[in-house]
Amino acid sequence: MTLHHKISNARKSKGLTQEELSALTKVTARTIQRIESGESTPRNYTLKAIATALEIPYEELLGLNSPEQNLTKDLHEEDSSSIEEDKHFLRLLCLSCFVYLIIPFVHFLVPSFLLKKRKEQHPAIICFARKVILSQIYWVISFHVLLLLTFLFNFLQVKYAASPYVLDFIWTFFFCYTLNTVIILLQIFQIQKLHLASSYVSKTSVIA
Predict the structure, then answer these.
(1) What are the structural domain ranges in the chain?
(2) What pLDDT, in 10s, does the model give residues 107-119?
(3) Which of 25, 58, 71, 201 supports an S-S bond with 51, CB 3.0-4.6 Å?
(4) Cα–Cα distance, 194 to 125 (Å, whole number)
(5) What is the pLDDT of residues 134-159, one digit of tens each?
(6) From the centroid of its chain, how far is CA 204?
């Protein structure tokens, strides 16, 4: 019996619809449909989520003792390829944050759009992407606060100081822009250290 038949039969034996299985696994219903129809081979972590939701041992679902022995190898190779693809997406997401050099106040909408468009299901990827987006939102807030503090400092200097020292706004811009560049580059370097597969397994282990 092929993998997609096993998944379909196991789902039906549990009395679940494709939509209900989708909700349990956090995988889109369209993806479930494609897997069950044999249109696509599921990623390794997707298969683990399905096995957990259907309460079937992962090894049994793979059929390691059946003639499908090549399936594990195929899944492993596809999983490795998928991990690289996911990391590539995260790099692009981080690089998109450099739009702040042109539109510094709403630039975080760009990575937000990319994440929404991708319709990502992997918890570790979603978590990292949200951290990147939040860091940009915090940067915008901090940038505005520093601009206001600079203005307040200059105002008080001019109004009350005998020999006023006015702080040039260019230094505030330079500091904030440099800081954000460092933040983005550090996040790009962190991507290579992400363990996407293991992170997903630990997440899916709580699905019931």
Answers:
(1) 3-67, 89-204
(2) 999 999 999 988 7
(3) 58
(4) 9
(5) 999 999 999 999 999 999 999 999 98
(6) 16
Candidates 142, 154, 147, 4; CA nearest to 71 is: 4
Q: What's the CA gap between 3 and 8, in Å, rounded? A: 9
pTM: 0.63
